[in-house]
Amino acid sequence: MRILPEISRTFGEYLLLPNLTDEGCTPDKVDLSAPLVRHPVGERSPIRIATPLTSAIMGAVSSPQLAIALAQVGGISFIHQNQPVAEQAAMVAAVKKHKAGFRYNDVNIKPSATLEEADRLLREHDRAVVIVTDDGSPSGAFLGLITAQDFNFHRHQAGDTVESRMRPVAELATGTPGMSLTTANSLLWDSRQDVLPLVGDDGRVTALVQRRDYELHQQFSNESVDDAKQFRVGAGVNTHDYRERIPALVEAGADILCLDSSDGYSVWQKDVIEYVRKEYGDAVRIGAGNVVDARGFRYLADAGADFVKVGIGGGSICITRDQKGIGRGQASALTEIVTERDRYAEQTGMYVPLCSDGGIIHDSHMAIAFAFGADFLMLGRYFARFSESPAPQVKLGGQIVKEYWGEGSARARNAARYGQGKELAFEEGVDGYVPYAGSLYDNVKVTLAKIRSTMISCGSVSLRQFHESATLIQVSQQTFVQNSEEVDRNDRPTVV
Ligand code: MZP
Predict the structure, then answer these.
(1) Domains in the chain, CATH or no CATH each
(2) Which of this chain's residues are annotated to bind K(+) (predicted)?
(3) Cβ < 6 A, ligand 1 pocket
(4) Rounded-to-integer distance, Cα 440 and Cα 446, Å
């Protein structure tokens, strides 16, 4: 037996101190992109995400609809594996069959461009129509260019349901984007045309654009766009039926896999990683976990895991610590494993990204997790609250809530994850409700604005810089007690 000298600490026990914010440090300059898979130090990760948020491998969270919405804002979902192989593969395929829509930020036709500039662009490309939004200003914000032909196609396809009005620049008027993404997607699907929905910053479709016009947009873009032109999606796998599940998921188009277990420090995970390398080499990428100390990280990194997931017992619906006495505060787990990740990179020349999984209660905890050195986050409760999550929405005591249950709860009956393939002997998760919070697009936008704002206060414009320069301080016991009381009142899932 050994007893570690330190105390197990969680995110709520820390605050950040501001660093100098200089002229170069503005929210629009903050780059939140992150590596998703291992890569040689000094090189780029072969898979990066623009938004460092992933949705949990849970039946109440990651469905095709949520995966599409999250991919559109630059993150990635992991479709849950607590279901038959064919059903999970069908969910992955459902995400992949949709053609990717581009938010105008991605297209990057400078949303702030003046109308004079738009006018000039139009004169140089005579068939184009300018698309503007109703942002309250006399001129509207410039969203993009679309040819007259495509505008007519768009209007024809959408019929009367489209509220957006787009006019040639000569008679500029403001327009209200109206069509939902779901409508646009079904139009796309039905029309079988090679067109892409252009999505406004509010997550609603502004227009349909033909591919060749998209190329036109690209000429004015100073950023490259997603080459795949398909939404990216991940999928959870387990250590039991992987020989059947992994080939089906790969066939369905999964971009990345992740071993889904509350305890990843096991030879079974190593076996699965070895299987993937033997069958697919580096063509298939797989993350592993969860672990909470340096030994677990090194074991999985040595086994070839593409990323390592950190966290045991911190999930909002998790009772593993009560039931089994196993777990560690997420801040302590990250502190130790981040040090080991960096040591591993120095020793081997290989950077293995870390995913901090679970326990994000306030948006501020996301910034704290990044400050501790997490590369990206996995969230359950956060995404379960949105309209796009698959969980039923119900009214409870006058409040609209969404159901949210753990994968180790009786409801999930996830024998593969918690029960070693047998009947669930005891529960490790609860079944409850979370307050309904509206659309993913709106919420993620606000969350990212908060993270950017924290980072600039801390003088950082990239996550790497933030990892290196963040200064954290522990709060007093009294502050912590107060925070926990508030959390219990407002943010914890209500247990049934
Ligand atoms: P949270 O974002 O709701 O706090 O935590 C989500 C994470 O909790 C998941 O990604 C997973 O690692 C973990 N989880 C899922 N089900 C259970 C359970 O039933 C659980 N105990 O702990």
Answers:
(1) 11-100+223-482 (3.20.20.70), 102-210 (3.10.580.10)
(2) 313, 315, 318
(3) 56, 58, 315-318, 320, 357-360, 378-382, 406-409, 428-429
(4) 10
Which range has the worst mean pLDDT, 130-134, 278-282, 403-407? 130-134
Residues 232-241 have a mean pLDDT of 96
Which atom of ligand 1 is nearest the CA belonging to 361? Answer: 4
Q: Using CA atoms, how far apart are residues 209 and 211, in angstroms rounded to an integer? A: 6
In this predicted model, what pLDDT tens digit does every residue of 132-176 receive, in sequence order?
444 434 344 445 555 444 555 555 544 433 333 333 222 222 223
What is the per-residue pLDDT for 273? 98
- Nearest CA, atom 20, ligand 1: 318
359/370 Cα distance (integer angstroms)? 13
Q: How much distance in Å is there from the Cα of 1 to the middle of ligand 1?
A: 28
CA atoms of 182 and 65, how far apart (whole Å): 9
**pLDDT, tens digit, 9 for 90 and up, residues 107-137:** 333 434 454 554 555 445 433 444 544 443 4
pLDDT at 8: 95
308-310 and 354-357: which strand pairing?
A: parallel
Q: What number of other Cβ atoms are within 10 A of residue 107's Cβ?
A: 23
d(CA 195, CA 208) in angstroms, rounded, equals 6
Cα–ligand 1 centroid distance for 340 (angstroms): 24
Query: Residue 232 CB: number of other CB atoms within 10 A?
Result: 23
**SS3 at position 447:** helix
Q: Separation of 135 CA from ligand 1 center, angstroms?
A: 39
Hey, which of 61, 354, 357, 492 would you mutate to test ligand 1's pocket, going by the most ligand atoms within 8 Å of its Cβ? 357
Q: Which atom of ligand 1 is closest in space to residue 358's alpha carbon?
A: 5
Q: Provide the CB-side half-sphere exposure for 374 (13 A, CA).
A: 27
DSSP code, position 121: H
Q: Which two tokens stand for residue 489?
A: 């009142």
